[in-house]
Amino acid sequence: MFAAAWMAVAWSASAEMPALRILPADIRFQSPGHSQRIVIPGGSHCSIESSDPAIVRADSGTLLARSPGRTRIRATCREGSAEADVRVGESESPLGIGFERDILSVLTTKGCNSSACHGSPAGQNGFKLSLYGSDPRQDHAMIVTQGDGRRVSLAAPEASLLLAKPTFRTAHGGGQLMTEDSDEHATLLEWLRQGAPYGAQGVRLERLELHPAENVLRGAGREQEVVATGRLSDGTTLDLTAQVRWSVEDEAVAKVDTAGRTVAGAPGMTTVTARAMGKAATAQFIVTADGDNRALRFPEPANFIDEHVFRTLRMVGLEPFPVSDDPTFLRRAHLDAAGVLPSPAEAEAFLADDGRERRSALIDSLLEREEHATHWLVKFEDWFRNSQYFSQGRTNGAFKRWLHDSIREDRPYDETVRAMLTAQGDTTVHPAGNFWHPAIDFMLKTFEVEKAVPTITRLFLGQRLECAQCHNHPLENLTQDDFYGLAAFLARTKVKHGYGQYRRVWYDDWRGEIHHPVTGRRVAPQFLGGERPVIPEGRTRRQILAHWITRTERMQFARATVNRVWHEYFGRGIVEPFDDFRSTNRATHPELLDALAEHFIDSGFRFKALHRLILNSKTYQLAAHAPGRAGGEHPLEDALFARRAPRKLPAEVLLDAISQVTGVPEEFRNYPPGTSPKELIASLSPSYFLTTFGRPRRDIMEARSNAPSLSQALQLMNGDVLTKRIRGDGLVLDEWLAAGLTDEQIVDSIYARALSRRPDPRERSALQAYLRSEAAAGRSRRQGLANLLWAVLNTKEFQLSL
Amino acid sequence: MQLSRMRSRYSRRDVLRLGGATLGGLTLPRLLAGAGGGSVRSCLIFFQTGGLCQHDSFDPKPEAPREIRGGFAAIPTAVPGVRFSELLPRSAASFRHFSVIRSMYSLEAIHEKAKQYAFSGQRPNNAYKHPVYGSVLARELGSRNGLPPFVVIPRKDICADAGFLGSAFDPFVAGDPAKEGYSVQDLTLPTGLGLEESLGRARLLSALDSRLEALEKSDVIGSMDHFYQKALDLVGSPAAKRAFDLGAEPDKLRDDYGRTTAGQGALLARRLVEAGVRLVTVFHGGYDTHTDNDDRNEALYPEFDQAFSTLLEDMGSRGLLDTTLVLAMGEFGRTPEINHSAGRDHWPGVFSIAAAGAGVPGGQVIGSSDALGAEPAERPVSIEDLGATVYRKLGVDSHKEYHASGRPIRINDGGEPVGELFS
Question: Does residue B196 sit at the A interface (CB-CB below 8 Å)?
């Protein structure tokens, strides 16, 4: 009956042929004389030819522009061939650096123009800047011409005081703010070399690209050259490989030199970053052990998730673990999808069903259960911080019910989010407005726009905007203007308190503006990226913002959301941390993330379709370990989803599971017996057990902690939650004893309820020996069996979802 | 806009230069001689969560205008010429037991980051979370007498954990000893369960766990097992039970400490370092006085004053100051100027801390702040310097490197022990 499902799986070993591409794409030289390195990912032993060597000559991996015109280049590799158009222009326009755009950004991020330094009303030692660059013209004059021009030396830029001070070559009260090999230093120096202009002379660097962006190196010592290419504002490209500053996130996995040459170290995954003139780009590196080339075995993909995940594993040369057996899958799916253990009857029915579709049938039935909605409700409450820390019980309850209904009815998530973002009215009657409560200043009873903005971007777009409140984010193109532009959408959102401080009414005023903290100027509503919408008559600013997030930006909204859900199932996001999307934080499977996001959009933003897709994938169903192959030894197994990473049960699920196995419900003050901790309206209802096992206060925007602790071990060992159950009334053991079950039957029942399996022979003999020793010590049969139950509930296996 | 203060205002060289005058004559042998010679075993940190106001405590500014000096007068201390705020009369009288640093500064102005900085001596960054002092001491010195090496009272703070060292070195939470009927949660076996019976079921549990442990090598399993073993040790240790038993203290002494979380927490902390805990942190909250600074401090600071002065007297009379480094500090100071809500906001620019025991001289003022209590005037002391001091006192090589996120990470980076704290 406990047949191992993975044995029945047909293994597929076919590797697909990737289409070759010449990168960077769309090469456009400004003028003859420039060169550009190219790469052909997946291609080996490539020869490059140009159809017109008089225009562009191909010299191994480098293209040389020789005269204006247009030509095709062709790469012929062992794996196939690729072609690309290359153009050579006639005008030479250097990369220009301007004070207003580039230098101010350096001064601001380094704090030079802050109120404690040169931005203070008196400046420092005669050098005064406007606070956070609010008056760029004046600042430019202060640096370039005032002070007798001693701050810059255009004749010998390297000797300028502007460089000597922040690098601490000359004593500087502000200390050392940059090193001579930093991007900031290079930007300042280049600007001085260009004559320290106010506006940039020449073209701008708009974007930086690295190629290949994804790399797999098999074995320590293997190398890959990474090419950095700039996309300029005149539409041309420029090879910046030798100019950018290279760094690597994890030097144990790979090292990179000043020319972008990356050398593999220990197995793992890391990111190489290149920075130039305030722009950044990344390339992913996966380093595998020196692999043998045996044919890897893969389960038959169930859906596109598997195709993406397995493609990466194939590329890396890492074999996934087999699909888990039925009892393991049964328990895992119940715990993950519904937050409960399967009952022995459910287990028997499932294992007796020998239809090929029994797993998907089980998934369908789990997703229709009340427990599924209640289980996901807890996650929603974590996300939206439904807590009496911010609101009183009555509105907590209304919000909880509203979220619960949205899950049960599988309401489109974009509608749910729009309802929250635009909510008006009394929050006991219009519960969606509770979404805004964490942004209320408890003391002042006012709505704090600055608290709401980063919450919204983090929850719905997966972007952390906290930094941009105080300074421009140099690498992510996020500025203070972005922060306050977004805040302006909330400038007319107001709250009234009545009937005690917890009764709240949200409304949109007809007036109200946000003022930029630096310039003091009124800020117009502006989306991230700079677009300023017209607010039509009769629409609120919040409605326009909600529309932009869920419709205009629906792809990013969907990515951020599916990544959250993925994180709930797999313990890590495809982008990790799961709510920190940025250009320097790469997704492990960007195409999968996009495919999931598109699927989510196509299904009308409905979660059930997404749950079904994930639960049915072989990726989700993989085993945590296999006979002869322990899990968790290779660092890439979990990062690339090659196996199930076992996870501790969340506090509420663990407590419910203990109640379920013992047959003794938990009691909470003011709630009827049998209330699940997931149903508590006051999320902070006192419970040492729940707090100790990681129930969050929901006061800050952090994922709940799932870390083991000494207090948890002590609680399960000696705590009252278990002790009172195994000693007290109503324990299921007493029913079994009354019904005359044998020790063996009771042991089987405990295992079936707690672990959804039977004991193996070694366990069985240990259990029998234990019962004999308890009897020999003079303890009653009940006491021995109760202690045995204690031991099973204390096993790691019970506390985990495997 | 206090974030502006976060920038590194004092480079290493600055500090050395500025500190040169006061460091004068302090040679390496003298520093080493003051390092406790292995006799310093523990550290006790009384943490003023939210940030102690320098003006209302160890660094009053009686000459400053009303909106700077606040509503409290300066009073003399046991050391002629040194004055504290009138909110700390007992500490003023006990000043012979401790030193005050008036020129501490931080580079972080947000609670979470500033606390992490203050707890670890290492500036927070986005790449990894540095372990706090207690976690490093737990790792480097291990536990004594079966007690957890790192304990926090009354509850944990999300900023005080082991970071990349992993939850094995996270603090043990002792609970609030000021509560009626206090006992440490789950420390004792359930009543009626004999030791032999409990060991029997524990043996069965290990047998059952062995199946999964053979197949599963991930951190979560190792970590769960580590804590389970620690729990077994702790439950079996009579010393542990005694250490947490505040009922063993005379009522008179408990009253002297104050029947507050601060007072009973400090007393429990003393019992714990006495029994062998490496680092105990007592969190005393309420210092984040954005509104009504004076009213709130008038109620709060006496709790600290009573607990801290009694703690030092008590530890002194027991000889515990020879083996324990005691610190009283918050994550930063409060703004020199009182705001529109009669409060003081976050101020990392300068703040005051107190240090005692482990060879720290008494009655000494180190450094000074400017006339407004806004910036260090002499001898700036960084958070890193304090970290280097803690490790030097406890005999931990602060240049030792851990490895995390694929890079070597020093236990303490860039700090120099504060020479004046080594008599």
Answer: yes
